[in-house]
Amino acid sequence: MAIDTNRLHGNPGNQVKSSTAGKSDAQVQQNRQTTQSQSQSSQQAAPATPKDSVSLTQQAQSLGSMQRAMANAPSFSQERVANIKKAIAEGQYKVDPEKLAQKLQAFEKELGNLTGA
Which intervals carry biased composition (Low complexity) (predicted)? Predict the structure, then answer.
């Protein structure tokens, strides 16, 4: 089943003709020129849109450079890790149980302070 969409809302060509019906070609041309000149003048009168800008304080710039430096720095000493691996492989790595217990206790206390427990 085909639907003729031209007849639903009227023929668009007829609407254009009806809006200019009864006017002379000179009047139609004058209306077009007036519309064009109004749009051109409104475009020229429109103020330039301001550009967004951001400026950082010296302190913010320093913090940014420190953050980049820390991000690029290793989080652990690779030399120390290599020495510990070597000592473990050779059987020379000794663990001090009392020192380990003290460190675990200090860690748990610090962790408790962070969680509010």
Answer: 26-49
Report the b/e string of 44-65 with b at 16+ CB within 10 A: eeeeeeeeeeeeeeeeeeeeee
Q: At a CB cut-off of 8 Å and minimum separation 6, what does 23 contact? A: 31
Instruction: Report the alpha-carbon distance of residue 61 to residue 67 in Å, rounded.
Output: 10
Q: Distances from the Cα of 82 to the Cαs of 85, 88, 89, 92, in angstroms?
A: 5, 10, 11, 14
* pLDDT tens sequence across 12-64: 444 444 455 555 677 767 777 777 766 665 555 556 788 888 888 999 999 99
| Close Cβ partners of 84 (under 8 Å, ≥ 6 residues apart) | 93
Cβ-based neighbours of 93, under 8 Å, separated by 6 or more: 84, 87
